[in-house]
Specification:
The protein has helices at residues 2-20, 24-41. By secondary structure, the chain is an all-alpha fold. The chain is flat, with a radius of gyration of 13 Å. The relative contact order is 0.10.
Length: 42
């Protein structure tokens, strides 16, 4: 049940971000992830 709630919360956040912020937070998250991966992998 926790997994279902977590997935629903993530889906809601993605839909909200896409509709109201033109994906601004997703873009920031992807950039941060790329920086972190580049830092870890050297």
């Amino acid at each position: 049940m926790r997994l279902v709630i977590l997935i629903a919360a993530i889906a809601f956040f993605l839909i909200w971000d896409g509709l109201y912020n033109q994906g601004r937070y997703m873009d920031a998250g992807v950039k941060s992830a790329k920086h972190a991966i580049a830092y870890v992998t050297g």
